[in-house]
Every structure is written in C-alpha cells, then in structure tokens.
Amino acid sequence: MTQPTSNATSEFLLVRVSDELYALPSTAVREVARWRSPTPVPGAPPVLQGIISQRGVVTPIVDLRLLLGLAANAPTRATRLIMMHHENCDFALLVDAVLDLTALPPSALAPTPTALEASRARLLSSVARHGDRPLGILSIAALVAALQETI
Amino acid sequence: MVQPSATIDTTPPLLLEVRTAIRCYLVPRSHVDYLVKRGAEPLPERDERGRPLVAHELGALLDPSDLGLPPRHHALMVTLRRRTVVLRVARIETLTAPGPLQPLGPFITPHLARPWLLGAVVVADMPILVLDLRRIAADVALGVV
User: Fold this and answer.
1) Could you read off the pLDDT of A32-57 as tens digits, one per residue?
2) How far is A1 from chain B, CA to nearest CA, in Å?
3) InterPro entries under this entry (chain B) (predicted)?
C-alpha cells in the first residue's frame, strides 16, 4: 500500500461564505444538497440553525457564516448544505454557494497570516489564492473542535 | 409458540404529537398524567387533590415567539409531588408508529439552554423534537422559567 506523501495534491470543495471564499477538504465531504428549511431547536446556539433528516438520519445544520463571524443572509437558490463527516461526527455546513471542486498542490498553500483575527484563524489550516482572491483552507478538525467547545 | 422468558422490548414508546401555536413537538405518553380539553374558562387554583395548579403555554416556554392559542385548546397535565403543572397547547394527536428516537448529537445536546429535549424522531422526512415533558414541568414547578 502506498503511503500518502506530504507533497501530494489534495482536492478541495470551493465555497462562498458571505463574500469570502473558503475551501473544504473533499475527503470530509459526503454530499452537497440544496438548502431546505430545518426544524428549529429551542435553546440551541444561533450557529446551529436546526436539524434536518438526511437520508433518515437527524443531522444538525451548522451556519458556517456565523461560525466565521460573517453576516448571515436569507437563503437563496444558491444556498447549499454540505454534508460533512469527521471521525464520529456528521453535520451539514450551510454555505452561500458551492463554486467548484479544485486540486491544490502543497506549494499553493501558505501559513495562516498572523494578522488574521484569532476566532477565524483557528478554523483555518492554511491560505491560498483562487485567481486574484484570497482563499481560506478550513480545518475540519478545528471546526469540529470549535463546535464541541463553546460555539 | 413459546415466548422467550426475557425479551428486549424494541417497540418505540408511544408519543403524542403536540401542536403549539406555530410548531409541532412529540411528547412521551408516559410523561403525561392527564389530557384535557380546555375552553376560555379560568383554570381552578388547585387540582382535585388540593395541589396548586401552575399553568404555562408550552410553545412559549420553548420559543417566546411561539405564543397564542385558540380559545378552545388542549392541556397536558403533569402531576408532581407538590404541584400539578398544566402545559397548554393548541392541539394533541396520538402518533401510533413513530420511528426510532435519535439523539441530537454532540454539537447540540451539551449546548442547549435547558435540557428539555430527549432527541428527535423523523416523520415524513422531517425531524420532530421529542420533549422531556417531566423535566419541563419540574422546572416550571420550581419557578426557574
């Protein structure tokens, strides 16, 4: 069996969150679905928009916009739910649009800038560029940890 | 046919489908002592055993915007040691064949403002929350809400 090497190109799902671009490691993405109205959960933090049934399984919707400290607009035709799986956690990430699936070599990834606000920097593993726009590479482990800690 | 002496009961608990002003919840039937229909008449101060009655609109306890019942509505009565709690709802229906109770998971359960939810059941591809009504009634009786 071939061991993955550190210089292997990885695939990412490019998403738009508010007016910013982010990339999710495709290994954690199970599927992409259209937004649908969730069942609200009274007393849950605002970042948890509610729950849906995804193929019969109760799945929480995490509003990535609020988690990143961005403005949450009303859902549009472009709004998507990205079904994620990380270790034992299944959840749906709400994003404003899914743009593309792209491959990024390690040479395209740069460390997270120190000037970036800490609440956002802790959710990123690195940064890159998509055309002339900055692209934040989300760390799913950090995202799950943030959700389990305080929200 | 001979039945085994000890079997595991996999039958889902009987759940009541409860409509509040704007939402729908499920409640274990075993959590409710009485179901009553109510009109516009005022609630008596005590139940038939002399315990004080404390009434609340269930929907508004869970979500302040879930307020406003029709004049003729239903009530779920939960009898506690020293009080009887009356939780008013718009309508009650019996759900005879619910699916399995699913947990809300590690992102939601530890972060809830109050531990009032037992989980959710998927009905017609929509999750419906299952309330811990006895816990809600206990908090109402204690005056913490």
Assistant:
1) 999 999 999 999 999 999 999 999 99
2) 35
3) CheW-like_dom_sf
- Which of A94, A134, A95, A132 minimizes the C-alpha distance to A112? A134
CATH code of residue A122: 2.40.50.180
- Comparing CA positions, the residue from A85, A76, A26, A28 lying closest to residue A55 is A85
Closest in B111, B116, B128 to A39, CB measured: B128
Six token digits for residue A120 = 């956002």
For residue A130, the distance in angstroms to the closest alpha carbon of chain B comes to 31
- Residues from B contacting A (CB-CB < 8 Å) are 23, 62-63, 99, 102-108, 110-114, 116-117, 119-120, 122, 125-129
Q: Do A51 and B103 touch (CB under 8 A)?
A: no
- The number of folded domains in chain A is 1
Look at residue A3 and tell me if it is in a domain: no
Question: What is the C-alpha to C-alpha distance for residues B142 and B145, in angstroms, rounded to an integer?
Answer: 8
Cβ-contact A64, A95 below 8 angstroms: yes
Question: Would A34 be classed as within a structural domain?
Answer: yes
ipTM of the complex: 0.86
Beta strands in A3-141 (DSSP E): 10-17, 20-25, 29-34, 48-54, 57-63, 80-86, 89-95, 97-104, 124-130, 133-138
CB contact under 8 A, B129 and A41: yes
